[in-house]
């Protein structure tokens, strides 16, 4: 187990390795692999998707890594949004036609569940599968949630893997709905009020 002081902001020099850690961490994720079941397509599309979803975290110093980039979390500060235009382009370029409508409904559901008040948004958190079970995800979560509590601001995420819901619940997140359409796996929006 690493010390909490090992949580750092990912700067430009480690952005690529941070993104690849997340790619590895989501390699068996139900929603991501429904989106891109072909391994080659997944490896081509997922880095672009990560940058569109959480790239703003790098610019704001809120892309956190620990354990030599063995785990990473991309947090978007209040009023910082995902790059919807880039997401549209990635989806148009890479999704199978038969799931395009389902994905559009998922994205609409995500937009509807985002809290209207200012909040920290966690689009992506992942641990390299080789390092799962070492407490790295917990370190990253505690580090970021401390800031949320100090600022008195809520945190929000969508869990794309039902197996991860208990992890988020241990950190104070509560399920606030379910987003699912057609053949898609469920996406679970979760909210944590500041302590």
Description of the structure:
By secondary structure, the chain is α+β, with helices and mostly antiparallel strands. The protein has a single domain, classed as 3-Layer(aba) Sandwich (Aminopeptidase), CATH 3.40.630.30. Helices cover 44% and strands 17% of the residues. It contains 7 helices and 7 strands, in the order E-H-H-H-E-E-H-H-E-H-E-H-E-E. The protein has a 7-stranded mixed β-sheet with strand order 1-2-3-4-5-7-6. The longest helix has 21 residues. The two termini are 26 Å apart. This is Acetyltransferase.
Q: Which properties best describe this structure?
A:
Aminopeptidase; 195 residues; seven-stranded mixed beta sheet; alpha+beta
Assembly state (oligomeric): single chain
Number of discrete helical segments: 7
CATH secondary-structure class = Alpha Beta
- β-sheet strand percentage: 15-25%
Order of helices and strands: EHHHEEHHEHEHEE
The structure class reads alpha+beta
Q: What's the Cα radius of gyration?
A: 16 Å
CATH architecture tag? 3-Layer(aba) Sandwich
- Which topology does CATH recognise? Aminopeptidase
SS elements, strand count: 7
CATH superfamily: Gcn5-related N-acetyltransferase (GNAT)
What is the total number of structural domains? 1
N→C terminal distance = 26 Å
Biggest pleated sheet = 7 strands, mixed
Give the neighbour order of strands across the main sheet: 1-2-3-4-5-7-6
Q: Mean pLDDT, rounded to whole units?
A: 94
